[in-house]
Amino acid sequence: MARLADYFVLVAFGPHPRGSGEGQGQILQRFPEKDWEDNPFPQGIELFCQPSGWQLCPERNPPTFFVAVLTDINSERHYCACLTFWEPAEPTQEALGTEDASEREEEAPEGGQGQLSPAAATLPGQLFAPKTLVLVSRLDHTEVFRNSLGLIYTIHVEGLNVCLENVIGNLLTCTVPLPGGSQLDSVEEGARTISLGAGDRQVIQTPLADSLPVSRCSVALLFRQLGITNVLSLFCAALTEHKVLFLSRSYQRLADACRGLLALLFPLRYSFTYVPILPAQLLEVLSTPTPFIIGVNAAFQAETQELLDVIVADLDGGTVAVPECVHIPPLPEPLQSQTHSILSMVLDPELELADLAFPPPTVSTSSLKMQDKELRAVFLRLFAQLLQGYRWCLHIVRIHPEPVIRFHKAAFLGQRGLVEDDFLMKVLEGMAFAGFVSERGVPYRPTDLFDELVAHEVARMRADENQPQRVLRHVQELAEQLYKNENPYPAVAMHKVQRPGEASHLRRAPRPFPRLDEGTVQWIVDQAAAKMQGTPPAVKAERRTTVPSGPPMTAILERCSGPHVNSARRLEVVRNCISYVFEGKMLEAKKLLPAVLRALKGRAARRCLAQELHVHVQQNRAVLDHQQFDFVVRMMNCCLQDCTSLDEHGIAAALLPLVTAFCRKLSPGVTQFAYSCVQEHVVWSTPQFWEAMFYGDVQTHIRALYLEPSEDRAASQEAGEVSAQEDERSALDVASEQRRLWPTLSREKQQELVQKEESTVFSQAIHYANRMSYLLLPLDSSKSRLLRERAGLGDLESASNSLVTNSMAGSVAESYDTESGFEDAETCDVAGAVVRFINRFVDKVCTESGVTSEHLKGLHVMVPDIVQMHIETLEAVHRESKRLPPIQKPKLLRPRLLPGEECVLDGLRVYLLPDGREEGTGGSGGGPALLPAEGAVFLTTYRVIFTGMPTDPLVGEQVVVRSFPLAALTKEKRISVQTPVDQLLQDGLQLRSCTFQLLKMAFDEEVGSDSAELFRKQLHKLRYPQDIRGTFAFSLGSAHTPGRPARIAKDKGPSLKTLSRNLVKNAKKTMGRQHVTRKKYNPPDWDHHGQMPPEDQEDEISVSEEVEPSTLTPSSALKPSDRMTMSSLVERACCRDYQRLGLGTLSSSLSRVKSEPFRISPVNRMYAICRSYPGLLIVPQSIQDNALQRVSRCYRQNRFPVVCWRSGHSKAVLLRSGGLHGKGVVGLFKAQNAPSPGQSQADSSSVEQEKYLQAVVSSMPRYADASGRNTLSGFSSAHMGSHGKWGSVRASGRSSGLSTDVGSRLANRDGLSPPQANGAPPDPGFLRPQRAALYIIGDKAQLKGVRQDPLQQWELVPIEVFEARQVKASFKKLLKACVPGCPATEPGPASFLRSLEDSEWLIQIHKLLEISVLVVGLLDAGSSVLVSLEDGWDITTQVVSLVQLLSDPFYRTLEGFRLLVEKEWLSFGHRFSYRGAHTLAGQSSGFTPVFLQFLDCVYQVHLQFPMEFEFSQFYLKFLGYHHASRRFRTFLLDSDYERIELGLLYEEKGERRGQLACRSVWEYVDRLSKRTPVFYNYMYAPEDAEVLRPYSNVSNLKVWDFYTEETLAEGPPYDWELAQGPPEPSEDERPDGSAPQSRRRVVWPCYDSRPRVQPDAISRLLEELHRLETELGRPPERWKDTWDRVKAAQRLEVRPDGRGTPSSLLVSSVPHHRRSLGVYLQEGPMGSTLSLSLDSDQSSSSTTSARQAARRSTSTLYSQFQTAESENRSYEGTLYKKGAFMKPWKARWFVLDKTKHQLRYYDHRVDTECKGTIDLAEVEAVGPGTPTMGAPKTVDEKAFFDVKTTRRVYNFCAQDVPSAQQWVDRIQSCLSDA
Fold first, then answer.
1. What pTM was computed for the model?
2. How big is the chain by its Cα radius of gyration, in Å?
3. Which pLDDT tens digit goes with each residue over 1751-1775?
4. Helix orientation angle between 449-456 and 468-486, rounded to the nearest 10 degrees
5. Cα–Cα dist 1471/1197, whole Å
6. What is the largest CA-CA distance in the chain?
7. Are 984 and 1002 in contact (CB under 8 A)?
8. Best CA proximity match to 253, nearest among 82, 65, 85
9. Which end of the chain, N or C, is less surrounded by CB atoms within 10 Å?
10. 1859: closest CA among 1696, 1726, 1656?
11. How far apart are CA 1562 and CA 1565, in angstroms?
12. How far apart are CA 185 and CA 208, in angstroms?
């Protein structure tokens, strides 16, 4: 029996000691006055009576009631029922509200109980003071407390004739049965009826089970207030130890919500701070760092705003606010969704019927109390599912004297398949679950509903999963049981308690609550105590039983283990391989091994391996020979490499006994065990793993201890049966039985059992100290020490604190595994660290397992000896193992080197590991597993090269080569990886290059750390040389002439060296004077003075020297050296191009041709004005050279606007410059409209600049003629629509056009119509009369706030561009997307596409193309454009190059593209060395691929217009590779000035070299092009003066295959000498003399170079021709000559069947949508893979069906090459036809059609539109003709013939005489046939 109430307290309002406006609670009386011995009086009750503070009220409030909960130091909860009522304040109390503190202190604290006169009660200013009756109890009977306190209040208010002292005395002496006790056998005891002596009667129902919480209606109310999702969030938050705060204006609701949340957590108990009602004075408790569940009045909501990590549930508003920094892990699926749906069924039964056509009239809803139990039942089921089978993961470590139980968390998670689940992980690590294990893990104890549920109902729950009604029925059954627990005897629940009358609180009280007589109450209490002394003490008699374990765990939430789900076949392979190993069939085992290693990725196969090996250990086959030992160790390592530190699947646990069993004899007396070869795994250094293993083994031995037969039994049948039954009993069953017998045992027997158990644990601890030393002490301590130092993780000691916790961060496990932290050389340090690790382990497990302190001390003494003994054993093993014959390693394959390339570091043995690309590993795409490969890495002066062979023996003898140029290295990272063969953890390197190669290598164990370090240092030194002369391109040239001085070209005026020096000297002089006061362009800061030969030192000229006049006055006579400079400059690429474009000439006397609008100015020939510009520049004719100096000051880096291209038909010019300084055009525009006198004093350079731009405008012919009128009225807007062509048909139907940020102002101001779909040309209204003559394209940020002036003839177009750093960042992400370092988490194309999108590379390509197309449109429309972005050398260069490429067909030829790159990129100073980080100085800037981005744009255009480019896509890849490779000097240095300074620019002129290695990439391309058509595009068929306008939407762009393709057979194919491997042996010269085999061979993507192995038809035919000519002994003809002859023959010769002759002759007027079909026909690196001739003789007929077919879709494209209507075409070919009167001769395609009896003609062969017909019925005669004016000149006169019809005479001309004769004969025969 227990007391119903412990204390009754009366608390009243009193003064506050510190004199604040509030009062404070004072305890007037408490009963009993002495504390109970078993339950001291709780402190601080007065705070909890008025949680919002003690205050006087102006009116009398109705009485309130709530129950606060206090928790004492022993975690016991005290329930304080508080009933508060208000009484008129006494004068002293009222004064408290007004007087100051000093007066208050004089007041008597009690403030006596004087009577109030009736008059006083009615005073208008009357205040009322609160008074509280408090009942303190350890039992939670809220309703009984409410009734009892209500009764006391009623007696007082109603003045009933009952003695209050008696009532309170009775209340304090009332006893109730203990919950769950044995007294509940009868209704009288279970439902106790009490009376307090005031004619009242109450029934107290005691719960049946003590462990089940009592919730009444609190859970149902919580769900009503917050809703399902919010309550589930709070549930997960409380379980995962977050802080939860409830807010409400009602204290009772706060108490109910907290009670409800706790009830949901059952069977876990909440063990943190729990305060359902927190007083205002204690609000700082909310800042506590520990978790809590607290309720606070909503009035204090403001005080809770700053709490950043508290989840706030507002009960009144129904919201739950989760802070951003808090992550509440959700329940694992499918439990989350299942729980949600069941809860909605319970809370809203009508939901299921809402959609029924005929819903039932009424739906029976449960009462609130019942609904409460149903909701709890749902959560009870949830816990049963979550924790199902938990008892199978309990380790019973001790049974006597008290059970010690540990939970194997890793096994529980592993069997569930929920290792990654955040929620379950946190719950298992939480305090609540630790309490659950210690409370419920006990095998022999009282059981409750949860134990039954988790043991017996799980199968039912699984069966019901998908049947909601059955789930609901189960929930209701559980709810019945929960309800019955709370209300065991509902029939007797009758109460009779007096209540006060209505509004009794408003009536005038007869008197204040009286002071009670302590004596009377105490006497009643003492009387009761005396009676109780005679009765035995209340013992909770429990019904204890063995707790059922339930079925073993099945993974309810089993996650599929992906591609490694093991089939029976795989397990069979594992078993076979092991049996082959033990039978000695090593060849068979070797064949199976790769398959076994792949299978071991799956859990089942790993278990199978452990079981099979275990069988062999039991059969005494543990001693192996060397080969067997190697096989077994490899398989074990493979098993262990995927084990996490937790070993959740028990693989490491299963292998632990095996690694100490398998061994091999190295020499007599020296045996090596397998553990010395499997140490490199994280699991061995994880304390949690060892603890779980230890406890598991202890449990096994303890169980065996009690299962031993009590007496010696004979080995009979019965004994066998009995022991078999015994063996089935689990350790928990044994423990339960022992706990049941324990009280019956004698004390001696008990002591004996305790000692036996203790010594069992002790012996296991010694055993484990040995085991741990086996796996932690390395075989070779010196090597491991090096490994550890390199791994760089913290010292082993740093982890000491984290050992005891579950935290794995930086714990010993990891630091041990990567073998860090052993810093001194002596082995004893290794030993010391291991001893410390073992000692910490021993301390923890022995303390938990109750080992005596003497034994523990003994262990601490033993551990160092154990370790020392083991080290001595290992030394012998290590010594002997070194004497073993080494395993035969494959021979190192030497790589092929380029001429001049030298090996710096010979091969280091490495394994090339697979990276994130799965092609080489035979991933989802199939194919062989080429990687991992075993071989060597070589370092040469030019490349890093790996050569080797795949480790998988089934792949065959394939050589794997992966290499990249040193200069392309972008990132080098040290990694620690496992070698594929031995599964040993080794150091490795990951090298990533900007040519999209990745070398992920693990060094072989024979490679020492010093060799690896040397490799890294050499690599770094070669990648970043001190000076540009240290690069391969320079050393290559000088390598073959080590001692010879450079040859000087005699008799050619001054030598080149002198010329370069003079040039640089003059430039320095000029720049010295002019650039002192303003910012100058600094080339990248490599220090060339120290590196140059001593003769160059004299060039240092001080700034103060005089400037030579000749450098500034171009018209004066030039010195000889200057003339030489001029002649050299004139030969430069840009000058040749200027002359081609007609942009001015440079005569020897420098006289100007006045009629030309532009001239070539030599003002920069000494690089005095702008270092990064070329020597000769195109400027307007009217601008003097001396003015250019001033103009250049307005622009960044002095890069003033110069002309770089002029349109042939619109004469508009394209200019380029750097961005503007502040005082540039921008300042000019801003100041224009201001009337202030500022303009007259304007900076002269700005005025010069305005003049300069005006000169550009007036140099355009139309604007000059229009005498400055800014109109385009004379300009036809129609030609815009007809000229130019748009991207291919494949992209039609997607919207594009100029995006709003590109030229948006241009579009609005000039009235551009909105662009068409896909960026197609706008309608002819695109051009309006009001076009500016010059558009300046500038950066938006730079042109902010600029006002436009309509009178100006130029206009600014601000656009947003990306900076170089964005290009760099984007490229890094692109590299990682295309060449990932490790496999993606989710395989498949989605992750690649996602990372590609994240890189934003294609968005940058899109922007560049968009801006370029905009500029092309403006130029085409006749407006000039100045591109003035950034410093004028990155994006500006990209844009102007693209614009010229799109506008001018010349740049789309091989020669033209070279000229374009030389002019715009090299001469105009793109900073190749700086952007490519070529030297040590540029290392920090990193690689920024501006030029590569330009090539990507060209590739996109090439893809859309495959017939417009003379060069192939391979040419672009070649340049992309070599612009970063530093093999050629072309792309080195940052400007012409720097190239001259190094003597590079004119070196070819000075020294004529023989057949040396090419220094220029162009020279190399020329040489190679003569030998092979690899750079030529067979589809080249340009249209004259064609302007291209590609589609630029991201959806129209493709990822350049340069980024993704690789050839493992030979490495990158861009070094042509290396890519040409040895020829395949022909059929008849097989080395083995076997019969000729098939010519077929397997082509593997990513291994073979497909274009080489399967060349396209044209290349194949050219190769075949070359081979045949060589066989015949003729000198083979060059491929280009052959190709040109074929094209010429195609033009002249007509072939009726002609399907085979490829040709690219298409007449220029082909409509484009036919032309760009080549988009579908992808090109490989060696030319087109297209063998389809677009010129074939059969083109579609002109029938409508064929026309529709041609238009319908691309899939019908090929129909036009079929001979479907060949019977209608008797004869066809090309004829020249004279047009009608005054019209010229024109080539047409003629078709003679016998069937229709007509001669039809078309524009060209594949044209489907017939242009005209000649009806043969009208022909009168066919005869020879004569050439007329305009006829083709080269054709013989006899090739002309006339056809005379009734209407007119047609003049024809064939290509030669025979074909003319043939045409005449054919027409004649047609006529005669008719």
1. 0.55
2. 48
3. 333 333 333 343 334 446 778 888 8
4. 160
5. 13
6. 152
7. no
8. 65
9. C
10. 1696
11. 5
12. 10
